[in-house]
Amino acid sequence: MDWLDAVKWDEQGLVPVIAQEAATGDVLMFAWMNREALHKTAELGRAVYYSRSRRKLWFKGEESGHVQTVHDIRLDCDNDVVLLKVTQLGHEPGIACHTGRHSCFFQRHENGQWVTVEPVLKDPESIYK
């Protein structure tokens, strides 16, 4: 059996993916992959996602330069979520979020509201031209 056949793809042929920083354990982002994206990720050793809005493969860092080197690819116990352990490249500390932050999970619930708890490391206007 092909290793990709073990993945439980959704109705659109996608699987949710969590990118976690290998060195710190920080959860950097959530995205989607189709079969081709997961295959290319394993083949290239860099994160390749599927953009649902653009309906095409999205090589992480293709516009921003914030590439994710993949060290480990894991599948959860139900075979329906992929975890990538990555090194986030392109800025120190690495920027994974299109808002210019280290992580996409920069808002924390406090007293009934969402509070921004991580700074912008680089202005997104200067990242995406």
UniProtKB/TrEMBL annotation:
Mg(2+) binds at residues 76, 78, 80. Its cofactor is Mg(2+); Zn(2+). GO terms for biological process: L-histidine biosynthetic process. GO terms for cellular component: cytoplasm. It catalyses: 1-(5-phospho-beta-D-ribosyl)-ATP + H2O = 1-(5-phospho-beta-D-ribosyl)-5'-AMP + diphosphate + H(+); 1-(5-phospho-beta-D-ribosyl)-5'-AMP + H2O = 1-(5-phospho-beta-D-ribosyl)-5-[(5-phospho-beta-D-ribosylamino)methylideneamino]imidazole-4-carboxamide. It is an enzyme of class 3 (hydrolase). Binds 1 Mg(2+) ion per subunit. Homodimer. It comes from Hydrogenophaga borbori. Its EC number is 3.5.4.19. PANTHER family: HISTIDINE BIOSYNTHESIS BIFUNCTIONAL PROTEIN, HISTIDINE BIOSYNTHESIS BIFUNCTIONAL PROTEIN HIS7. InterPro entries: PRA-CH, PRib_AMP_CycHydrolase_dom, PRib_AMP_CycHydrolase_sf. Pathway: Amino-acid biosynthesis; L-histidine biosynthesis; L-histidine from 5-phospho-alpha-D-ribose 1-diphosphate: step 2/9; Amino-acid biosynthesis; L-histidine biosynthesis; L-histidine from 5-phospho-alpha-D-ribose 1-diphosphate: step 3/9. Keywords: Amino-acid biosynthesis, Cytoplasm, Histidine biosynthesis, Hydrolase, Magnesium, Metal-binding, Zinc. The keyword Repeat does not apply. This is Phosphoribosyl-AMP cyclohydrolase. The keyword Zinc applies. The gene is hisI. It is found in: Cytoplasm. Zn(2+) binds at residues 77, 97, 104. In the N-terminal section; belongs to the PRA-CH family. Catalyzes the hydrolysis of the adenine ring of phosphoribosyl-AMP. GO terms for molecular function: magnesium ion binding; phosphoribosyl-AMP cyclohydrolase activity; phosphoribosyl-ATP diphosphatase activity; zinc ion binding. Coiled coil: none annotated. Residues 29-106 form the Phosphoribosyl-AMP cyclohydrolase domain. It comes from the Bacteria.
